[in-house]
UniProtKB/TrEMBL annotation:
InterPro entries assigned: Cyt_P450 (IPR001128), Cyt_P450_B (IPR002397), Cyt_P450_sf (IPR036396)
UniProt keyword terms in alphabetical order: Heme, Iron, Metal-binding, Monooxygenase, Oxidoreductase
Any GO MF annotation of the entry: heme binding
Sequence segments annotated as region (Disordered): 1-22
Lineage start: Bacteria, Bacillati, Actinomycetota, Actinomycetes, Kitasatosporales
One of the Pfam families matching this protein, by short name: p450
Biased composition (Basic and acidic residues): 8-17
CDD domains: CYP107-like
Family that this chain belongs to: Belongs to the cytochrome P450 family.
Name of the protein: Cytochrome P450
Keyword flag Mitochondrion: no
Amino acid sequence: MDATPGPDGDRTREPYRLDPAGGCPHAANARLLAGGAVAPVVLPGDIDGMVVLGHDALRDFLSHPDVAKGPRHFTALAEGRIPEGWPLRTFATVPGMITADGADHRRLRNLVSSAFTARRVEELRPRVEAVTEGLLDGLAEAAAAGDGVADLRRHYALPLPLGVICELFGVDPAHQERLHHLSSLVVATDTEPARAVAANRELVELLAAIAAAKAAAPGDDLTSALIAARDEGGDRLTQPELIGTLLLMIVAGHETTLNLVTNAVRALCAHRDQLALVTEGKASWADAVEETLRWDSPVSYFPFRYPTRDLTVDGTLIPRGTPVLAGYSAAGRDTAAHGPDADRFDLTRGAAAKHLSLGHGPHYCLGAPLARMEAAVALEALFTRFPGLDLAVPEGELARHAGFVGNSVRALPVRPGA
């Protein structure tokens, strides 16, 4: 990556208009990648943006010192061209580590990072296993009541990560369903502006109420710890930073793992030979998780990063202040990085299954160890209890996730079997 045009000059490409309603990204990704690692896109509201699709280009872009996350670097926002109800505005403006840079980012990240170390996550394993067993009972009951069919996403893939992250942050279970509903509206890119504004406002109010309750009666949870935490200078999180941190951790802490488990089950059901490798001990459940992350990333196009100066990436100029999406689903199937069979689901890739689906660089996903553990536990328990589990409808008939940020399906009807 460099800041001057390559030997062939900057590539000029017709911008790709992202569909706010979403859809399967892989065919479009392949077409875009055929033209290079970077493509111009049109975001909702006719805002010009870019997406970095190639694996190597994205890896370098995510860790480039002249690429920032702070909203002050977003030219269209600074010029007042981004309305309040813009569907991606929360991603760009929510206070917290997701929109912080440098020392400020490190300060915010350090306040919560200790809860997500590999050791701390491993200590959570027995609790995750116990929750999983209860959810399997619920899945079986739902199938029995539904002529043998149950929505695995609703009854299994969602309540596991949502329950665990809410327990970590001390959120009353009574709030969980509302939190998921509101977060779904916030991360969708097809939410009508007035509804998006209302959902954001209600979500912030709900999180503020949760924080206020913890301030009044602290407990042994991360919300209480964040309220009490001080940095080296003795400063605490501001109220907007606290709410922004809670929003990020609770929303990202379940939405991505929900998609990961859903996509892994879909992939294993469609590739019974690969499932057999695991059940026969020739591959691990961790292999299934990593290959799913590469092959069908739970996040497709993640907003936003902004060059703080003009950058030329893979022969394409990205002007300073342009909102850039991280094309995780495209990078996972980039043939330049994964070989000519990049679109094949193969658990035997091993180290070759490298991917960027959990990020790279200073903003690497803080919850990656937890997401990996939850998904591996969920898959092993599911297919051990229901070895004949299969989809109840053809893959092509599954309705896609709303929006182009998340990558999955809205529901996953399955037949668990005996």
